[in-house]
Amino acid sequence: MDVLFNQLFSGLSMASILLVIALGLAIIYGSMGVINLAHGEFVMLGAYATWAMQTYFGFSILVALPFVFLAVALVGWIIELVIVRRLYRRPLDTILATWGIGIILQQAVRLGIGAESRFVKGPGILDGNVVIGNVVMSNYRIFVILFSIGVLAATWALMTKTEFGMKLRAVIQNRGISECYGIEASRVYSLTFAYGAGLAGIAGALITPLYSTIPTMGTSLVVDAFLVVIVGGLGSLIGAAAAAVMIGEVTAVFSMVMNDTLGRIAVLGCIILLIRFRPRGLFPETVRR
Amino acid sequence: MSILHAENLFSYYGKSPILQDVSFSLKAGEFLSVLGRNGVGKTTLLKTIMGLTDRCEGRLEFDGADISGRSTPERARLGIGYIPQGREIIPRFTVEENIIMGCYARTDGKREIPDYLFEMFPILREFLTRRGGDLSGGQQQQLAIARALAMDPKILILDEPTEGIQPNIVRQIEDAIVHLNRERGLAVILVEQNIPFARKASDRFVVLDKGAVAMAGHKDELTDAVVEKHMTF
């Protein structure tokens, strides 16, 4: 029983990181219809930025988080400005282009920093565990879970409570008329893309103590994040949260009762079944576009 | 002084010129109707004023400044209130959010709904929290006009505001448009198929045919013979 709880807890902490990655993907896809295959590399950049700040400036992860967010958001902003912006009318080409960007980023890091794994120390204040009975929960993982919930809440507030969010929702529903009322749609898109990239950066920073920081780390993470977006239903924040928890936990439980590989296959099997019966995800948009 | 002045205007979708050599001028506070059969470029003319066509050549001045190179949002912020055909309100926004959206074109940063909008269209106050998409066509049209007015425009350009709307609301909308022009001094460009309303409301008119100005004049010159020649099929 305790083993199960421990496993569920670690599944939850992975799920919450997955959620932050998936949120970025979902926002970028939901607003501009771009399937961003470079998203995993944004996560990787976030991880390396955290490593760099720790190695060269001695910043702990907690201090580095806002800087990582801004740095990766800036990278996303530039990529949107230089490449993605030109392809909004050609959605298939954005897939190819962002994939290419991903490869370039990955190889650039491999060439510049090296292919070997980099170590990032967890923050000192969050050393130690909370122990309830035989269930051991590391403070850092608890922090990750709470922080991700915070990111989800902040994103929800940004979308629904701020003027920026309202402008974004207006542009999503009718770009032409939004521009006729003074909304700079292209600026809204740039900022949204940058925000999505920044979220990936945060996820990268959060994951560094739990995962090996290598140039290819983004690839496997982004696959899971795509699964989250598909299962959750596009455009739904609550769906993304539910799907992240489900996928994280199911993976954790299956890997415990079987092994990692079989667990993986079982998870994919479950998702295929789910998509068979709910093709638009758990919480699809109910309004016609 | 003219608030809107177009000279030798050409406007394109792709490579096809939809408007060809259109010139007209509108003084502040004036009411101009744009008339003509279907497909002669009336809607395109309004879209060209907003910068929504692919390309445009010629001179287009608004309030003394050349706007032909400006983007659509910039034109909106200069004070051009556009009410498109089909209304295009945001279906998932509430009535209130739709009107507030009009304020985004304001340059003074205000985000309040002017009270006179609700005096003009009381139904909007009643439906403030309903979603725009749940309103009837006529209510949506009132909402679209309110949204444009929320930006405190210098000119209103309306594309067939009474098309496909239940008759009891058509009257309200017509009265509102006339009121805005006469009492509030707003310049208006109205694209309309409804000749009696155009006659009653406008100071001057322009008739388009095949993308060019076929005739322009004072409202008294809009005789039955002119209507017969340019507007009946």
Automatic annotation (TrEMBL), chain A:
UniProt-annotated location(s): Cell membrane
Cross-referenced PANTHER family: ABC TRANSPORTER PERMEASE PROTEIN, BRANCHED-CHAIN AMINO ACID TRANSPORT SYSTEM PERMEASE PROTEIN LIVH
A biological process term (GO) from this entry: amino acid transport
Principal subcellular localization: membrane
Record-stated family: Belongs to the binding-protein-dependent transport system permease family. LivHM subfamily.
Membrane topology category: Multi-pass membrane protein
Pfam families in the cross-refs: BPD_transp_2
GO molecular function: transmembrane transporter activity
The protein's name: Urea ABC transporter permease subunit UrtB
Domain of life: Bacteria
GO cellular component, as recorded: plasma membrane
Alphabetic keyword roster: Amino-acid transport, Cell membrane, Membrane, Transmembrane, Transmembrane helix, Transport
Family matches, as InterPro entries: ABC_transp_permease, ABC_UrtB_bac, BCAA_transport_permease
